[in-house]
Amino acid sequence: MKRIAAFALALLGSTAAGTVVAGAQDPVEITFFIWAGSNQGVVPMNVIDAYKKEHPEVTINILESNNTITYPKMVAAKRTTPDSPLVNCGFFNVDSITKGDVDDMWASLDPKLMPNMEKVLPNFRRPDDKGVGYQMSGIGILYNKDKVKEPPKSWSVMWSPDSRGKVTMFDYDTRMLVIAAKLNGGDEHNIDPGFKVWSDNAENFRALVDSNDAVKNLLVSGDAWYAPWFSSLATVWIKEGAPLGFAVPEEGAIAFPIYLTIVNGSTDAQKKVCSDLLNTMLEPGNAGKYGELTYSIPVVEGATMTDEQKSSPTLNLEMAEKSVVPDYGYIAKMSPEWRQRWDREVKFKLR
Hints:
The chain is α/β, with parallel strands linked by helices. It has helices spanning 2-13, 15-19, 42-54, 67-80, 94-103, 174-182, 192-200, 212-221, 231-239, 268-281, 284-294, 307-311, 317-321, 328-345; strands at 28-35, 58-65, 89-93, 106-107, 132-144, 167-170, 205-209, 226-230, 244-247, 254-263, 297-298.
């Protein structure tokens, strides 16, 4: 907490306040989306607070949740009130970003308003600048160390007969369909082996959940032993003292980029405020600090990184280079069909 408090004071006094670009003088109101918990709101909230002090005419509402819950609500709002989106800008994971491409959810970012986009590593820039990469996390296996004495070596532990009633994960986790398919003769474009694996081993699920806290509670309590999970959040929970371990399977972690973006339907004035905020978030100091606090990997060139970030195998780009990178665009196109199949072929067996 001392580290977070000191960072907050320093950021308010210098970087965020000193570099945010001036905005419009007319009243503007936006809603900014941030992820809940695990220090994910520290940097954006300090950037936002500094901006509000410099721009009293701007009202910034905060929606704090996760993409699993929020993105479907954004789709519903787009259908009913396309000129009044649920949120105007913020953080979105690769699942939501690619779904948003299909749904025409994202506005193109303006490089003139966001010059710091040029600092983002080329592999994390997006077509037509519809969002821009910010951080990356690797997905491995989070496990209860009291129940599991040796770190799991393979993704196959998730569907092993020895894991009956011991697995939890987000409902409709397409990444787990893909990795199961890849290890059983298929891939994203031949997903049937993945469905067969999970259909045959649906008994392994202790619960399918929709929140970070639900995953944490099930694993910490020992009600579940394994979960596919993000290296960044896993590191936070482990440092908090949770009886958990994190393993990178021998087949590789799954790459999971996160993005900053602006939502279609926002007015020009709202886009200007959002651009100011996102540009400041992309400053190397802020990108590095976000990575430090959330244990994710900054994808901004020159990001200020601590010795721990540079040396940790789960915090540097080496893990990213060795990760499995699914075809997220194709997954997004197939997700509606796959969700129906998941309900029929997997969840039906949990009743």
